[in-house]
Each structure stands twice: as structure tokens, then as C-alpha cells.
Known about the structure:
- The protein is globular, with a radius of gyration of 22 Å.
- It contains 14 helices and ten strands.
- By secondary structure, the chain is α/β, with parallel strands linked by helices.
- The chain is 46% helix and 10% strand.
- The longest helix has 18 residues, at 337-354.
Amino acid sequence: MVGLIAVALVIGLIALVSGSGDGGEEQPLALKRLVGQTIVAQLGSGDPDRELVRRVRKGQVGGVMVEGRNPQAVQSAVAQLQQAASAGGNPPLLVMIDQEGGPVKRLEDGPPETSARQLGAAGDADAARQEGETTASFLSGLGVNVDLAPVLDVSEPPQTDGSIAGRTFGDDPAVVADVGVAFAEGLQDGGVLATAKHFPGLGRATQTTDEQPVSIAATTADLQADLEPFRDAIEAGVAMVMVSTASYPNLGAKKQAAFSPAIVQGLLRDELGFDGVVVTDDLEAPAVTSVTTPGPAAANALKAGDDLLLYAGSNGGSAQAFGSLVSQVKRGNLDREPIEEAYNRITSLKESLSG
């Protein structure tokens, strides 16, 4: 009898620990794994350094940003990093690049051959879709799975040297929507995720957030009109939206857009119905670094509803943000919930790529 009781106790303990047979919940993911998927680190112009490879293997990086490199170097570096992610038991990396065409094209020898400005002037959605497909074929062959394009900002006067006008499809919201969304569809038909940017629009800015803090002085009606291309892109199933680091006082945002719940959660997710992955614009750009540091920037972006935190300036910034987020959660200054929500959206997107 004593032996039978002992066996029963052992079985009960095993069931209690494993949670099997009683509907027990799975253990929560390790905090560092959750945080890591939100971090987008810089992939420099040379081979990945040992520290980046180590961080990828340990699950501290969810994506990398490709800068100016030749195609063969990109292919080799991406393969090395994806192997490191796999070796650590992590989801594959999102590999991102600014391959818009025109003045912003990191791989100059690759498509698109026609700039957004030219495509918009022609008003030819079929040509834009073909450019998107050709670009996707080129990028996917190198292991790049995200194009940070198209630019869906509607350019408006005054168009100064610091404005984004040369990168847009034009000044007519309907044309930008028609042609820009066609380019996005071409990318995604070709197996590369498209990114509608820079929400809720940088077309009225006279300066760039790459140089300084920017506040968009426009009426609510004008800003709402500029949302048309983003509305159409969301309805067409664009995979990602990039939120700008400019300020929009007349949209009820007291903070820069990427840090504003009113913009990300209220306008983008609730009003426009976007349930995909939201990526910040560069959190190491002067528009951000002049007012905050990587740690607080990361926390405020996640609280606002962003998923991916882009650090394109240096690997130091992304590493600092990762460490700060982990520390803030442990100290009780940041909830796990927004990180878990971001993790789920990011990993679902990655699963769609493999499918």
C-alpha cells in the first residue's frame, strides 16, 4: 500500500509540473526572447561582426537593416545571420532594406529602375506593380524579405531641399494611392513584404527627421486627406506600416508619432483598422536623439503600439535599447503585455513568409 501511494504521488507531481492532462497553460516565454524580436539592428557595410552574430544567436535581435553593400556581400551576410538565428532556436530574421528607387536605393545596381516620382507622373499602376515584382525577385534572391517601401506620403508645397517630395509618387492623394499601392502589391506578390511609410504622412514637412525634430503644421482636414494612400494600402493588405518620428499636433498627438498612442493605437489601429506589424522610423535619427535616448525611446514606442524598433545608426543603440527594455520590465516600469502583443504579431508575420 505504501508503495502504491508513493507511485501515485510521483505521478501527481509529474502531472503538476508538466501541466499535462489538466489543461495547464504553457510556461511564458523568456523575457529576453520576447524583447529580442522587437529589435532591428544595423547590418553594416562589411561582414557581420562577432557581437551581432552572438546577439542574433541568443535571440536578442529580431531583424536587421541592410545598408549600402554589394549584392554578393548582402547575400553572404544574410545567410550567416540566418544560420546564427536558427542555431539559437530563434525565428528567422526580418531582413530590411530601403530600396525605394530614385534617390533612395541602397543597392544601386538593382531595381526599381523607375523612381516613385516618375511612376506617379505616368500614373501607370501596372508599371508600378511590375517594378514591385521585379524588385521583389531581386531582393528575395539575396535573402532580403522586407522592403521599406513604398513612400505613401503626399508631397505638398512648400517643397524645399529638406522635403521628401523627390521620394514620393506625387501631390495627388488618389494617384499616390493608386500607383503606390500597386508597387506594394507587386512586392508582396513577389514574396517580399512591403512597408507603407511614413505614417501619417511626411509630405507637408519642409525638413527631414533625418536631420532635426520636425513638427507638421497643417490643418486636421489636410492631414486626414493625406491618409488616403495609407487607407488603401491597409485595405489591400500591406504587411507593415512605418510610423514617422515627426509631430502632428492637429491629430491630437502630444508626442512624436512613433511614441503617440493617439497616432499608433488610435488612428492607425483603431480608426484605419491596421492589425499588422508597425515599425518605427529610425530611432537613432536626430529627430529622436535630440530629445531622448535609446532606452526610453524603445519603451515609449512599445507603449504606443509599435512592434519593431528600428535602430539604423549603430549596433550600440539597438543593444542599449534591448538591455534597457529587459531592465525596465524586471523593475516593473514596463508591462510585458505590449511586448507580448508585438512578439505575437512579429512571429505571425515571419510564419507567413515561411508559408
